[in-house]
């Protein structure tokens, strides 16, 4: 499911831009989709895994978008939190951005390692994981919004 | 900058009806110390407990560990910009209550973590088991916002530590050590010209809620890399706002007693020329990472460094900052040693870091945070065991019926610290 589109056609057949932000967020975190959906385009992978998020980001990188935030979580380890949000440029370059590709491939490797680990998630703390993931991506907003182009 | 640090050794803590330090014993009257803590509308309850080395006590979940200090002479007060007004610290005289700490404990988020065992195998993994701990256990009001409560709990701990530190103002220290950092001009003096010019790059966790560090009250994610004197750090210019990743978070105590700073100062002018300390952040936004590591390498070059030690906080996303800092210095001919920890899987066979580069060829490890440890049941719990199953390193079933805990080392506060302030080593 995708919440938010970059543009839609009006009943008169004209293209109406819904988001003018220079960035979009790929996420499986409903709290991010809800909190930031008005601010930017959200690629929301409802019930998707952290791997689904990173793989979706990788697909965008292959389509010449740039990764804007580090795809791994902070000190919350990949095997603890089910949520992941990554900011990606709306604009495309003329070729694959090598740094972006390297980052997502490395993130996939780290997540791959974590698959063997024991499940630590409890439903009761789900909302806290969502909150911290939202906070992580929100911490990048002043930086991304401070510049006119990406 | 020149700072005289007077250490007053604390040999015990007990409750009493007044607050004082007498013959190395801290006497605590809770009421006046808790009054300002409870004034915060977000803190529903707060009380003190005492944990002595060797006692059968488990403290969890630990938020921060703070050493009480007081500025006796010189500008500013401890924790400037947080507790004291913004003013440059790091000069004059500071008294330290050595051998004790204020530990803040209590729930903030459901996967919060941090265990300090005062005895048993768990105690061997944390340096804080060797301290007399005054534990400030706090509970939030219902429906709190985590980031607001984190700030309330952080300030409560710092204010309490400052109030306890104040008790040492008039005391005669058991030991006095003078720490002095040179100006740039002094580092070029003739007698040091053959010594390698060494700098310290201190990376500060700065990734949002529960991941933040403050410098003179400024959220580190909102700064560019900059210079700080080692003695400013000793006076509490850097404080922790980090609640996650117990094993490798740099608590405020770690900053106050940063072992890299102390070891570099100890050999300064003898084996090396300790030119200065660069602080840099660990932001989420990639351009911030690039900008901050660029800035770090520019300053390292500006200081004409031959070598640098780089320390980290956290895992995953910050590994990218670590490798950027390392490689950018190395490419300028500045040799680096990085201090980090490893997440190499329970068998130790997986790749240790979430980023890597062949230029990062001198690494000191704080240990493998995935190593499994079984902590025996202890008689008394300060705080709550409610979170043990969900904290980093714990898992469903971590807390066994008999009260023992099977978990990874990362559950233990300070076990794999990336400043090297820990018990594990390979020599």
Itemize the secondary structure elements and their pairings.
The complex is a heterodimer of chains A (150) and B (427).
Chain A: E1 7-9, E2 15-17, E3 23-27, H1 30-36, E4 41-44, H2 50-62, E5 85-89, H3 98-114, H4 126-138, H5 141-145
Parallel strand pairs in A: 3-4
Antiparallel strand pairs in A: 1-2, 3-5
Helix pairs in contact in A: 1-4, 2-3
Chain B: E1 2-9, E2 12-15, E3 20-22, E4 25-28, H1 30-38, E5 43-51, E6 57-60, E7 62-66, E8 69-73, E9 92-98, E10 100-105, E11 116-117, H2 121-125, E12 132-140, H3 146-166, E13 175-180, H4 184-187, E14 197-205, E15 211-215, E16 218-219, E17 226-228, H5 230-234, E18 238-242, H6 252-256, H7 259-267, E19 273-282, H8 286-302, E20 307-311, H9 317-330, E21 335-342, E22 363-368, E23 372-375, E24 380-383, E25 405-408
Quaternary structure state of the chains depicted: heterodimer
Within the largest sheet of chain B, what's the order of strands?
A: 17-19-14-20-21-22
Helix content of chain A: 25-40%
Strand order of the largest sheet of chain A: 4-3-5
Low confidence ranges of chain A: 1-5
Structural class of chain B: alpha/beta
CA radius of gyration of chain B is 21 Å
Strand content of chain A: 5-15%
User: What is the count of β-strands of chain A?
Assistant: 5
* Run of helices and strands of chain A: EEEHEHEHHH
Shape of chain B: globular
Shape of chain A, please? globular
Total domain modules of chain A? 1
Note the main sheet of chain A: 3 strands, mixed
Mean pLDDT of chain A: 82
> Which structural class do you get from the secondary structure elements of chain A?
alpha+beta
What is the terminal-to-terminal distance of chain B?
Answer: 33 Å
Mean pLDDT of chain B: 93
How does the major sheet of chain B shape up?
6 strands, mixed
Tally the helices of chain A: 5
Gyration radius from CA atoms of chain A, angstroms: 16 Å
